[in-house]
Amino acid sequence: MAHCRRSYNPPRQPGTDTGPCFFDTPSMSTNTAPGTSSAPATDNQTSVAMIARQAIVNAQQVVVGYELFNRSRSGAAHTAATDVILVFTALSHAGTEELVGKKLIFVNCTHESLSGGHLELVDPDKVVLEIPPLGHAASEEVATRLPILTELRDRGFHLAFNHTVLESAYAPWLPLADYIKLDLSVLAPDQLAVLISYAGRHSQAELIAEKVETAQQYDMVSSQGVQMFQGYWFARPALVEAKLLTPSQASIIELINQVRKQASTDDIEETLKKDAGLAFNLMRLINSAGFGLSREVSSFRQAVMLMGLKKLFRWAALLLTASRTSGTPSSVGQTAVVRGRLMELLALETLPPEEADQAFVVGIFSLLDVMLSMPMESALGLLNVPEPVAAALLRREGFLGDLLTLAEACESSDDVVFNRTAGLLHLSSQQINLAHLQALAWADQLGD
Q1: Short-list 289, 322, 277, 285, CA closest to 304
Q2: pTM of this prediction?
Q3: From 3.30.530, 2.30.30, 1.10.3210, 1.10.3470, which CATH number describes the 20-30+248-446 domain?
C-alpha cells in the first residue's frame, strides 16, 4: 500500500504494496461473472502454517516453554518480530500437545502489535510476550510505552525483555519483567557477571540464558545462578506443520457485519453453519488450551455466547487478513482492514467510539466488490448495511464518504484530493499520517 506523503515515508512491507494497480488484475474484476450467484460463497481452502519452536529448559533440563517462530514466510520476508497471527495460529489451530502441550509460549512482538485488541483472543496465562528494546531509547518513549505494558501484565500476560532492560533508560520497565533474556552471543563473560548480579538485586525476574551453544557456556551461567536456558546445545528449532482450513472471505465479511449490528445469537449461529471453515476455526479456538476454558464447548451457540461480540469481531477481522485467494495472502483483505482502521482512528478525532465504529465498517467493506467479484451495489444487497454506510460506499457521500475518499487518497498519493478532503474534515497532515502509520502497523500485526 502506498503511504501518505509529507515528512516521513517508511519502507513498504512485503505484501502491503496494494495501490490502485491491483484493480486491473483480471482475477479481481469488479464485474459479475456469468452465472455468478448472489449468495456468499462457502468454498474453503486448506493451507499450512510452518511454525518453528525452540525449547526453553530449567536447571534440571526439563522443558518449561517454547519460543515460537513463524516460518511460513520466505526467508527473505521473515523478520524476528513475529506478528500476532503466530499466537493465533499456535493457540487456535495448533494449540495441541504436539506443538506446545501445557508449556509456556514465548512469542516475539512489535510494540505496535501490543496495543491491538486481538490479544484478548487468548488466555494470557500461558503466553509470554517478548518485548523488544527501543534502540537508542529516550526516557519519554520508554514512559509512553509503559501504560500498555502495565495493562498487559495486569491482564495476566507474562513479559520478557532482553538484557537491555537492565539499562538505566529502561528503569520504569524493569518491575514488569517476569523474564530477562541474556544473549550469550553478544555478552562477554565479565558483562554477564555484572548483569546477573544487578538483576538479582533489582528485579524479581527469572533469567534465561539464550544462544547457549556449548557445555562451557552452560556451566558458566549456571554457576552464576541462571536457572533457565535456551540454545543449540539443548535443542535446535524444530518445524511443526499446522494445517489451516480457511473460510471464504464472503462468510467472514458477513460475520463481521452481523457482529457490528449486534445480531442475535441465532443469526450468527446460522452464518457459522453455512461455512465449514468458519465453524471449524471457531470451535478449534474456543476449545484450545489457549482460550483457557475448563470444559469442552460442543455447540456454536455456546461458543458465540462464551466468546462475546467484541472478541468475535477481533477474531473475524484476523481471519479476514489471513484468508487466502488461490493459495496466496489476500492483499485485498489487508487493504480493506487498513482502510477500516485508518478511518476509525480519524473518526475518533471527532466522534464517540460507538459512532466511529461505522467508519471502520465503511473501510472494511470498501473493497467488497473486488472480494466478491460483483458490483458494490449487489454486494451491499447481501449485507443490509445502514444508509450512511451505503451512501459512503456507493456515492462517497457524507462524513463517512469523505473519510473513505481521504483513505483512498492516502493509498494513491493524490495530493489534490488529499488536501481538499483533509480540509473538509478539519484534519491536519500530521494527524492523518500518524493514523495511517498506526493502521498499517495494526494490519501488519493481524496477518501476513
Answers
A1: 285
A2: 0.53
A3: 1.10.3210
